[in-house]
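ok new one. same drill as before - structure tokens go in, u give me an amino acid for every spot. 362 of them this time. try not to just spam alanines like last time pls lmao
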């Protein structure tokens, strides 16, 4: 798609999906709030450090445990990679951009940065979807999951998540370019030839990155909780004597998932927390995006608007710590890594989350 006329747009604030200028706006006359600009840079810098530190440490621990072939570890490893893409190619470029006031680079860099910014959003969202779908398949369809094999299953989900992310981010390359937004003033800008282009694109991004994944995750989580509830109910009835059960209960077959282990339930709770935090971080971001795209005269320079936009990037800081809090194997190794200590190997207490700790040398 090749477009050149900006007809419907709004200024960039906090790495928005699109960075474009309103028709009739004199870019050279637009002045930034100096205090708000400094606040943006400081907040982005803090988020960048937190995201790099948290995801980097957990990634090191997971790479040390890569020989265990734990499916959940593989999903978290890829989620850490996706969050590092957000930190390095979304938060960092926006930090430099905000510090300088203008995009400091040629056309190629403009298109590349905009592609990678959205790639991180897609990958982080779709990796959570993939992890949830894997848990759903393992719990609700145990026989099919056993036949297909855990390794083949999580490989397929992870490859699909990355493949869709790489593909659906491509429009950014054609929408954005280094454009002359005022005489002698160049900016990394999104261009739409039609007045409805901006509205359609922001709406599509909201659906593809947030709403549709949220719907898929919700359906999977509801089915998982129903399966766990049925499994626990059948398990409690088995403790009763057959004589105390009604004839219909005696003939009732076991739940499809069988006895769901405590470790499996713990994994589901962790996934739910990740999803809730993701929703809390991204819902305000996309609400602001839609409001700015559809409102003909939005107030775009307010501090509340900017802070809501920056809130989304906090999600890349939270995932590794959530995983560490729920994992009985990663959390001890992470503490050892932070304390620069060594530890001998230990036996795990949970069947699906080995607590074997490798030597740590600082």
């Amino acid at each position: 798609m090749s477009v050149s006329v900006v007809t419907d747009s709004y200024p960039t604030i906090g790495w928005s999906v699109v960075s474009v200028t309103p028709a009739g706006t004199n870019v050279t006359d637009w002045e930034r709030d100096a205090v708000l600009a400094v606040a943006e840079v400081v907040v982005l810098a803090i988020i960048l450090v937190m995201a790099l530190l948290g995801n980097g440490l957990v990634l090191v621990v997971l790479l040390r445990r890569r020989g265990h072939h734990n499916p959940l570890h593989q999903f978290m490893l890829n989620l850490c990679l996706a969050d590092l893409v957000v930190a390095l190619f979304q938060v960092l470029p926006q930090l430099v951009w905000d510090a300088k006031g203008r995009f400091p680079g040629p056309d190629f860099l403009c298109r590349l940065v905009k592609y990678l910014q959205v790639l991180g959003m897609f990958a982080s969202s779709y990796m959570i979807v993939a992890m949830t779908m894997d848990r759903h398949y393992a719990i609700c369809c145990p026989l099919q999951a056993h036949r297909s094999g855990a390794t083949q299953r999580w490989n397929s989900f992870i490859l699909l998540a990355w493949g869709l992310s790489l593909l659906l981010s491509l429009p950014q390359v054609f929408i954005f370019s280094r454009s002359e937004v005022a005489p002698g003033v160049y900016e990394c800008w999104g261009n739409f030839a039609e007045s409805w282009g901006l509205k359609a694109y922001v709406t599509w991004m909201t659906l593809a990155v947030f709403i549709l994944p949220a719907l898929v995750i919700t359906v999977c989580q509801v089915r998982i909780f129903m399966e766990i509830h049925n499994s626990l109910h059948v398990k409690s009835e088995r403790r009763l004597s057959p004589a105390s059960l009604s004839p219909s209960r005696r003939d009732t077959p076991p739940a499809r998932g069988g006895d769901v282990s405590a470790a499996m339930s713990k994994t589901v709770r962790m996934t739910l927390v990740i999803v809730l935090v993701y929703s809390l971080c991204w819902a305000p971001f996309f609400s602001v995006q839609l409001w700015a795209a559809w409102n003909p005269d939005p107030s775009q320079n307010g501090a509340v608007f900017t802070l809501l936009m920056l809130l989304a990037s906090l999600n890349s800081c939270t995932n590794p710590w959530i995983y560490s809090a729920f994992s009985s194997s990663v959390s001890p190794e992470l503490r050892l890594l932070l304390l620069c200590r060594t530890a001998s190997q230990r036996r795990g207490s949970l069947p699906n989350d080995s607590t074997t700790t490798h030597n740590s040398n600082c």
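Strands lie at 176-182, 185-190. and btw Confidence is low (pLDDT under 50) at residues 1-15, 18-30, 248-259, 343-362.
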